[in-house]
Design goal:
Elements (H helix, E strand, L loop, with lengths): L3 E6 L5 H15 L3 E5 L4 H7 L5 H10 L1 E4 L13 H8 L4 E7 L12 E7 L9 E3 L5 E3 L5 H17 L4 E6 L7 H16 L4 E6 H10 L6 E4 L1 H14 L9 E3 L4 E4 L17 H17 L3 H19 L13 H11 L2
Parallel strand pairs: 1-2, 1-3, 3-12, 5-10, 8-9, 8-10
Antiparallel strand pairs: 4-5, 4-11, 6-7, 11-12
Helix pairs in contact: 1-9, 1-11, 5-6, 7-8, 9-10, 10-11
Bound molecules: 1,4-dihydronicotinamide adenine dinucleotide.
Amino acid sequence: MKIHRVVLIPGDGIGPEVTQAVQRILEVAGAPLEWEERQAGITALESSGEVLPAETVEAIQRHRLALKGPCSTPISEGFTSVNVQLRQKLKLYSAVRPISSLKGVPTRYQGVDLIIIRENTEGLYSGVENRVTDDVVMSMKISTQTACRRIARWAFRFATQRRRRKITIFHKANIMKLTDGLFLSCAREVQEHDYPNIEYEEVIVDAGCMKLVQDPTQFDMLLLENLYGDVVSDLCAGLVGGLGVVPGANIGDEQAVFEAVHGSAPTIAGKGVANPLALLMSAVMMLEYIAEKRKDESCHEVASRIQKAYLRALADGRKTQDLGGDLNTEAFTEAVIESLG
Ligand code: NAI
């Protein structure tokens, strides 16, 4: 059996708790993975003096795969987000976040099944901010034709491979005529030239948020620039049960880093109550990615087994407190392992 080496970044806050739980489930399920643990975030800063050590980046470049716990970022001061640095350094330009209703997780909506694609490398996350005078500070939103075309092509290709029917762009090109205007014109061009069979729609982001909370099932795939993608991802998490159930992948041409959409949740860190499901679902996405990219059917089989197991556990009402259940991290991990059969 082929073994795939994966960089494991435990991260900060609840990161080590959820990564440990996920590693255990993957091991019991027989995932053909071998871990190389590396540090990033506050944990790395404390141990090595750097938030994103070069050896962590090099390890991901070498193995081309990483499973990452959340990393904390200080507010209004301090270092640039490790997550943003990692996405920019490794050119992980596409963030994929599937948002699906789960049986056993009651919410206001049923049958939600949408995929968010977020441009992950530029926009207001370019980090160009400066103080102009004592009174004025500014932040630059940078958009390039290269990145806008690249993410549009990626999204439409993904839609075709996954047999999705429609892509909706959320934008604010009525106000940011140049930057969001470029994002729209690139997407239109790609759709018209190469993907006329995929339905295409443009919605102003504020109206889009209202439509999402009225009826999320009217959307199939959303394509957004960086900041809107960040905000709308959490909004969509709320439609299906919260941050505990939304996985993610950051994908580039060379490597991919899989991580949950949630952060380090400092208020519950160390209490043993964090929900490991979003990271587990991200690990399932990673196994499917390996199966597809490296033509390894065994990864697909393990991914399906794990998916069936967590769905069974949830359907039986065995879930963590954030989802209205009474299990802690360890008990939910055991519930999934028992459901593996
Ligand atoms: P957060 O996602 O950490 O927490 C938001 C809320 O959701 C909190 O009430 C938290 O307790 C709950 N929550 C999140 N994940 C959960 C889980 N697995 N199980 C149970 N409850 C969960 O967002 P917040 O508070 O805005 O950010 C905290 C830190 O995380 C910040 O330093 C932020 O920069 C960082 N962050 C890191 C991300 C990453 O590494 N990809 C993504 C988002 C935030």
